Fold:
Amino acid sequence: METRAFQAETAELLNLVVNSIYSHKEIFLRELISNASDALDKLRFKALTESSILAEDSELRIKIDLNKEKGTLKISDNGIGMSKEEVIDNLGTIAKSGTKQFFQKMAESKDGDVDLIGQFGVGFYSAFMVADKVVVETKSPFAEKGVKWVCDGKNAYEIEETDREKRGTEITLYLKKDEDDKENSFLHEYKIRSLISKYSDYVRYPIMMDVEVEIPEEKDDEGKVIKEASKTTETKTLNSMKPLWQKSKNEVTEEEYKEFYKQEFKAWDEPLDIIHTKAEGTFEYTALIYIPSRAPFEFYSSNYERGLKLYSKQVFIMDKCADLIPEYLGFVKGLVDSSDFSLNISREILQHDRQLKTIAKNIEKKVLDSLKYMLKNDREKYEKFWAEFGKAIKAGVYSDFAMNKEKLEDLLLFESSKENKLTTLAEYVERMPETQKEIYYAAGKNRKKIENMPQMEQLREKDIEVLYFYDRIDEFASMSLREYHEKPLKSIASDELDITPEEEKKEVKEKKEKLETENKSLFDSIKEVLKGKIDNVRVSERLKKSPVCIVSGHEGLTLNMEQVLNEAGQNMMGAKAERILELNPDHKIFEVVKKLHDDENSKAKFKDYCDILYGQAMILEGLPLDNPTEFAEKISNLMSAE
Ligand code: ADP
Ligand code: MG
Structure:
């Protein structure tokens, strides 16, 4: 026998499982049964194309054997089994995301929140919560030899090849002494029965156990006992095997739905909503869909694989059928069972399957309906959803607005200047005064930053509500939306805002034109000094207190978007926003700069002032300066001048 050390991370997890978990130990059974069921699914799927691997052993099942004398509990299956490499890979390392995720959560929780395990399950290793030795004997139908794996839950395991011929896996737990002594020991038949009905009733394969049955005494016609009562053992199936999704809604309790969610989808959160639907007619299918309350692990990374499970007549076909759910709803978990799919359908064929597309469309609609309902009837819950998945919905608007605008625009939530809470676009529009024609937004890192933007001054003064965009994706999504119910969405940092009342427009325009003509040479000089940094200089209508601000041209990128693209390394083409420097003609500085400009002897000073004004505008916009050192130097010089 060969001894191998566990990888450090695995050893650490084992140590945790063995030494610090006292509650919910019973879930080890559900974990091992779920693994056995997975192994049977895999075998059944392989057998679709290679029926020979079933050989004579074609009744797929899980079996539990209790041995009170030896203190062992054995779980065996005739599933796919494992080769030696697979045993090393699967049982010697923490490769599975579920386990890794658990481990992370466990490390995060300060006092080793033992309840986590109930929510999570840690897969195979949970066996060590109740056993001080675990032996795995297994054989894959594709491997020559069987394998035996022995481990006492410490830092190493032993492994050897065997002559096992039976396909499948047999896991023997040597129960810890305190476990097997207990009243409530896992060696009691009734305990196992109750655990199976609690956690594993809907497993699609029979879970069998030899149980003791009483044979009643036999009497003859006169009532004389001719045969004493006796006991015998019979092999019984402990689970109903009816898949949960095949039951009708009123047959399933909330608890059962939730338990199923955790098991079937290796989830650890509570679902926010559950959609169980059956379609009859042209296409027949059943779908059971869960909207999670927490983002799945890696959800916001490119490694994340979305998809629903696909079954045909209760036979598992595929784990992550991506075509069943649009990308922006990738966080949704669930399954579809349709009798209309052939069992050995390939991924390629599925992609073009009209029926699959129809089902996908219906599911998308159901999920969106459920979200809309939630938004309307349980705002608090919806906001929880939004905090977790809002980004995904916004990405949906951005990625395919032609398809998704209508569907998603009413699901969006933003903070706004009105109140410190979230608002829908509909609510915003509802509050708009008659005269307001556009929906305004400001993009920035947080509330405070946005409220300090000079561009906010005018809107605040006019008491116009502004939506606050904190997410990088927000502005891109709003660019895709363009408008909501014919009201254009506009950045307060963009060129022209249509907020001057009709009757004042003419006056304001004339004043502006007059100032711009009068100061043409000043503006030209500023433009010259800031060449390459700005594209235009203008008199500002929007500034009240601040001397300057930078705004973007009304077409194309805004400065904020340019920044986001640069930071994400996605600005390959070096796309640039049009930069317009706006000056506040009513500010003292305007006069100062004008004077400097008119004075032949102040050329250098004028240049410095232009640079400082530009720097200020950039800082107020939350944008990085091209040369902070130079900027600081110029300010210092100014301060040290008398
Ligand atoms: P998960 O079930 O999330 O993949 P587990 O820790 O429960 O993680 O199991 C780890 C891996 O060990 C499984 O993915 C599977 O490859 C393998 N495995 C566990 N039990 C069995 C079994 N009874 N038959 C075949 N493979 C198994
Ligand atoms: Mg598992």
Residues 31, 34-35, 123 surround magnesium ion (ligand 2) (CB under 6 Å). The longest helix spans residues 354-377. The two ends are 87 Å apart (CA to CA).
